[in-house]
Design brief:
Number of domains: 1
Number of strands: 2
CATH superfamily: Hypothetical protein af1432
Order of helices and strands: EEHHHHHHHHH
Radius of gyration: 16 Å
Shape: globular
Helix content: 55-70%
Strand order of the largest sheet: 1-2
Strand content: under 5%
Low-confidence stretches: none
Mean pLDDT: 94
Largest sheet: 2 strands, antiparallel
CATH class: Mainly Alpha
CATH architecture: Orthogonal Bundle
Distance between the termini: 44 Å
Structural class: mainly alpha
Number of helices: 9
Oligomer: single chain
Amino acid sequence: MRTTVRTVTGKSLDLINPDPAQICIEDIAHQLAQLNRYNGACPFPYSVGQHSLLVAAILPPRLQLWGLLHDAAEVYLGDLVSPAKRIPALGQVFKPLEHRIQAAICVRFGLDPAQDYAPIKEADDAVMAVEMAHLNGWPDLVAVDRLPRPGHIAIQEMHWRHVEGEFLAKFNALIARKAA
């Protein structure tokens, strides 16, 4: 049984035993820029990459790289909607794979996998609340999912190539700042 996925750059990542050397930012930026949130149930194509840029933007500088890469495992697994992750049989299989791949991403880009994830989750939830209430017109789901009150984050339609470029530029700026 093959447990590897191929990326746009031709790399192969084993989902069971992910090798950090097979992870590259070009794959992450390209594929997240084309992977739609909410299974495409948005008024325009709205990608995980664009979502990640917004999450990074509202975090303090020391956590922005984490925010940018918080959903990077979805490059290899897809964006399984949150309600599906809550189904016990799916969650028991999906979550360990997601954590294993995210740990490999952390190793690859020098992030601490033991980082307190609470501030990143808070930023993720804040952006999700805006997406649900203002982008998708689902304010009722904000309460159901116990998300924070939607803030004033501007979400605009962006072409996937623009998202990919912005993602790479943000990543490069954060890496340069980290190295300084």
